Amino acid sequence: MWRLWTKGWGLLAWWLWFRREGFPQWVAWHLPHRIVMWCFYRVGAHATCGQWGCESPTDLKFFTAADRWDIPHERTEGRTPRRSRGESAQQA
């Protein structure tokens, strides 16, 4: 906080930064190692499944995996699709 204060940031600007980036970054740095590694494996698996199933995980780039994380996969056979929040059980 002191570093941002000496750069001329006011209290409101610091608070907005902290809510948007500071707190999530603090949480990420304080998570247990096993949880972080599981998340890392999950992103890698998501980036090499479905339509990208032919790609080798060893050739996968970090930013490619991050971009693919935002793209939803198609549903696999045998699984029932999730209902949206507004959809009732009777409509499905």
Q: What structural keywords apply?
A:
92 residues; mainly alpha; 2 domains; elongated
Q: Strand count, sense and closure of the main sheet? A: none
What's the helix count?
4
Query: Approximately how much helix is present in the residues?
Result: 40-55%
Round the mean pLDDT to the nearest integer and report it.
Answer: 76
Let me know the number of strands: 0
**Structural class based on helices, strands and sheet pairing:** mainly alpha
From the N-terminal CA to the C-terminal CA, the straight-line distance is 51 Å
Poorly predicted residue ranges: none
Account of the protein in words:
With 92 residues, the protein is mainly α. The protein folds into two domains: 1-30, no CATH class; 31-71, no CATH class. 52% of the residues lie in helices and 0% in strands. The protein contains four helices and no strands. α3 (33-47) packs across α4. The relative contact order is 0.07. The model has no long low-confidence stretch (mean pLDDT 76).
